[in-house]
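REQUEST FORM: STRUCTURE PREDICTION
Request ID: SP-0412
Submitted by: Lab K.M.
Chain count: 1
Length (residues): 195
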Amino acid sequence: MATPRKIALFGGTFDPVHLGHIHLAILAKNALSLDQVRFLPCRVSPHKTGSHPTSGEHRLEMLKLATAHLRWAFVDDYELKSEQPSFSYQTAQVMAKRFPNDRLFWIMGGDQWDALPRWAHPEILAKTVEFIVLARGEKPVPREGYRLHIVPGTHPGSATAIREATLAGSTAPLWLDPAVADWIRKHRLYQNAAD
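STATUS: Completed
RESULT:
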């Protein structure tokens, strides 16, 4: 029987994906010898139901551009195809059915780990995945029944700062892969306050 692969799920809005996202994925991959990191852009985050991210097509394409050189990185459109807000426990259950013989992990930041008890059905998520928490400073506190892997690491990248800089007229915002920056310029993304 084949050795189970280690597959990490990395969800988010990725509006836009930036070098910080890639850096953190690399830290997680190296720390746990992951076979895959699956980037899962959400259609609508249940934590940001009032926001309107850039179209899923643009965010998906920017992720593909940013990860094109990483053989272990996969861009998965499962959540973009969903009619409902993207609940992590549901995504994890679908991925467990898709990859029944593999170990599943969930990549998140320390702030998300702190907020996890307020997520929809975190206990279901905890039964399905192991958590990779990227810690900036404070060490995440373990929780009973939650398999936790702490990976030290941070990055100053900010999607909000990139959108604001582009709106202000910057043609080369920090923290962007050149191909993603070209895509943003070509499609005139984030150039008005409604974006």
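NOTES: The first helix runs from residue 19 to 32.
Reviewed by: T.R.
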